[in-house]
TrEMBL record:
The keyword Plastid does not apply. Residues 56-132 form the Ubiquitin-like domain. Residues 1-35 are annotated as: Disordered. PROSITE patterns: BAG, UBIQUITIN_2. GO terms for biological process: protein stabilization. This is BAG family molecular chaperone regulator 1. Residues 151-229 form the BAG domain. It holds the Pfam family BAG. One of its GO terms (cellular component) is cytoplasm.
Amino acid sequence: MNKTNIFSMKTKLRGIPPPVKPAGGGGPQAASGLEIRPGGMLVQKRTSDSNHSSNPKIKVRVKYGSSHHEITLSPEATFGELKKLLAGPTGLRPQDQKLVFKEKERDSRAFLDVCGVKDGSKIVLLEDELSKERRFLESRRTAKMEAASKEIAAVRVEVDRLAKQVVSVEMEINGGKKVVEGVVLNLIELLMIELIKLDGIAADGDVKLERRMQVKRVQKYIETLDVLKMRNSGLCKHKIFTGQTPTRHENQQQVQRNLSERAVVVTTNWQTF
């Protein structure tokens, strides 16, 4: 049995048409639509556009308000993928979109071809009202927090300015120098005004933490001024009773006593902010 007979028997068993011989003779050739692979196996002939035809594209028309958008994508894509493609031309985030096909809202996980979407199909895009409301509330909250942050920053700047005056008064009194009582009282009043401002600022999260830090800071300066006011009053009485200026040694002793008093004397009762 020659090779040609053996090959004919194999093709009959596989249900493949036998190769035909050309008129001029020669080796076996592939039948129409088939090609011979190395080893003599017959397979379907490959064409240059086979890959293109296996992955077709469709064009859908999406209506959003008074505008229309044509989107080209695979029919095997999901409605969620279509939403991502629509985010650019419409300006809507995918989570804010509702796609309606054949008068029915489609889930983002549903496939286009399974739902019957074909080339030229029309889809309606709507904005999700609940999502729109959530975004509106979120934007209001963000604006509110930004405003609160600016108010706290303004208070911080003013407290920084007053803090320098507190340090200056503290250095003078600790050095044994009498300070006009009105200066101390004025600083306390100005700091109390800033404390009231902080109390009126509504904040959440990090902004609330920043407000609390500034409240504690202002309270600390007011407590310091309360102690300095008592110490300043003591310096005045000392000069009246002795009728002379305290010596350097007496000043040092007075400063040490004042420091010990400062550790325990707090005359202001604070509320929790």
